[in-house]
Amino acid sequence: FDTLPPMRYQETMSSIRTWIQQSESKLSVPYLSVTEYEIMEERLGKLQALQSSLKEQQNGFNYLSDTVKEMAKKAPSEICQKYLSEFEEIEGHWKKLSSQLVESCQKLEEHMNKLRKFQNHIKTLQKWMAEVDVFLKEEWPALGDAEILKKQLKQCRLLVGDIQTIQPSLNSVNEGGQKIKSEAELEFASRLETELRELNTQWDHICRQ
Fold first, then answer.
1. Where in the cell is the protein located (predicted)?
2. pLDDT of amino acid 205
3. Is 186 helix (H, G, I), strand (E, B) or coil?
4. SS3 11
5. Domain boundary among 90, 111, 132
């Protein structure tokens, strides 16, 4: 083993250092705010591609580690120290990048799950309110038609029961929406606010009928 590491070591070190710098640069972009589901999906794809790329670089990283260990056994200590310091610096970046990628993917997946549930709840509420709206706009029967009046009264009572049953769902949607909004990009947060306001206005309208 020569006192200097082989050419392959130098090339691998240079290649991995460049890759780490490029990857860190990509991760410096604000990836983790809540926004449109499709955009988050695309961002997650990019992060997962970086994770795959990290795995592809693993052999080179292992080679650097093994080479430095070999040098420690055979080369003079001052030379060893130089390359050991160089490797430790790269190793620090490598570990940080690796854990950052895992955390970022998890965070994005959490955001996506929350947003999907929130949007599904909103759709369910909107569908129910649309059906109620149709019912409320039906023409009331002429006075004297007792059977139809009785049926309408029963439907009204059911509606009141539904409102009481569904109110907690609306509360939950409002709470969930506020949490998502606090972690969302500005423009998306604004749209979310509008969506919630319209939902609550529609709900109040139904409750006042």
1. Cytoplasm
2. 85
3. helix
4. helix
5. 111
